[in-house]
């Protein structure tokens, strides 16, 4: 694989572990679309201690203990996070502020005003109940793009009145890709997944060989010529188009036409 271009589709926090989807060759052009896929995380949250990074790597800014933790209030709080919610990202994050990464400014001692933005929580499940001995709880969080689990922990700590931070974080799934099926960095031989597996995540159309040739030549095709239509994750202003020899994303060009925007040949 020497000289082959490799890209990723969403970074992990330096203190997190788990699945990182890599794209190789021309597939790197699909990175933006893969980042739109829903993600699943497993996390252990420590209550009673708040840090400046919202996880265990940061400096402690508040230590109130967890003796007054109320599980009913917590369960009600979790329910309130379902669906779309405004979230303020941590200052120590990769988000750009005035052209620079927020963590660079934060670590240089600058005060940063992070803007809240909408995120989407599909589901939050309690994996293990609140541990009264050490003040931790384990959750599985299914969420959309741009969601910070560190901010979720921080917000829950505020609601509970005792502060909280992420003690452990693992990303277990991105779309239909799961960490249990992933290559291990120590593997001598890596398994490469065909682009057809990626296509299964998206709302997509399958095209005939005639339209495949037209599309690959840069011309628009009619939606009603599609041989099959499948629902999945929607990407704003785009639809996934799959042919026998390519995976593509096209934009809507009016009169039920789809115009090619990104075309990647299959292996």
What does this structure look like?
This protein is an alpha+beta fold and about 270 residues long. It has two domains: about 40-175, Pseudouridine synthase; about 195-265, Archaeosine Trna-guanine Transglycosylase, Chain: A, domain 4 (Roll), CATH 2.30.130. Helix content is about 15%, strand content about 35%. It has helices spanning about 30-35, 70-80, 100-105, 150-160, 195-200, 210-215, and strands at about 5-10, 15-20, 20-25, 40-45, 50, 60-65, 85, 95, 100, 115-130, 135-145, 165-175, 175-180, 205, 220, 230, 240, 245-250, 255-265. The strands form five sheets. Strands 2, 4, 7, 10, 11, 12 and 13 form a seven-stranded mixed beta sheet that branches. A hairpin with an 8-residue loop joins strand 5 and strand 6. The chain starts with 5 loop residues before the first strand and ends with a strand. The mean pLDDT is about 90.
Order of helices and strands: EEEHEEEHEEEHEEHEEHEHEEEEE
Mean pLDDT: 90
Domain unit count: 2
CATH topology assignment of the largest domain: Pseudouridine synthase
Q: Please, what is the oligomeric state? A: single chain
Q: With helices defined by DSSP (H or I, 4 residues minimum), what is the helix count? A: 6
Instruction: Kindly provide the radius of gyration, computed on alpha-carbon positions and rounded to a whole number of angstroms.
Output: 22 Å
What are the low-pLDDT stretches, counting only 5+ consecutive residues below 50?
none
Supply the helix-strand structural class.
alpha+beta
Number of strands: 19
Strand content: 35-45%
The level-1 CATH class of the largest domain: Alpha Beta
- How far apart are the termini? 14 Å
């Amino acid at each position: 694989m020497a000289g082959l271009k490799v890209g990723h589709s969403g970074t992990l926090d330096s203190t997190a572990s788990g699945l990182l989807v890599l794209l190789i060759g021309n597939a790197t052009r699909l990175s933006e679309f893969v980042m739109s896929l829903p993600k699943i995380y497993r996390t252990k949250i420590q209550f009673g201690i708040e840090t400046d990074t919202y996880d265990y790597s940061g400096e402690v800014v508040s230590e109130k203990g967890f003796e007054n933790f109320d599980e009913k209030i917590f369960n009600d709080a979790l329910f309130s996070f379902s669906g779309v919610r405004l979230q303020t990202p941590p200052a120590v994050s990769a988000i750009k502020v005035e052209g620079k990464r927020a963590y660079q400014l934060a670590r240089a001692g600058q005060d940063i005003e992070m803007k809240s933005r909408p995120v989407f929580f599909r589901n939050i499940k309690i994996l293990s109940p609140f541990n009264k001995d050490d003040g931790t709880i384990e959750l599985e969080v299914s969420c959309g793009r741009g969601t910070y689990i560190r901010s979720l922990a921080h917000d829950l700590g505020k609601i509970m009145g005792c502060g909280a931070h992420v003690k452990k974080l693992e990303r277990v799934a991105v779309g239909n890709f799961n960490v249990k099926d992933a290559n291990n960095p120590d593997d001598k031989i890596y398994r490469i997944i065909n682009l057809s597996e990626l296509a299964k995540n998206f709302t997509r159309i399958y095209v005939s060989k005639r339209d495949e040739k037209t599309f690959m030549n840069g011309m628009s095709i009619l939606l009603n010529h599609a041989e099959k239509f499948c629902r999945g994750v929607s990407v704003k202003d785009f639809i996934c188009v799959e042919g026998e020899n390519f995976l593509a994303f096209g934009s809507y060009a009016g009169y039920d036409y789809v115009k090619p925007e990104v075309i990647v040949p299959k292996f």
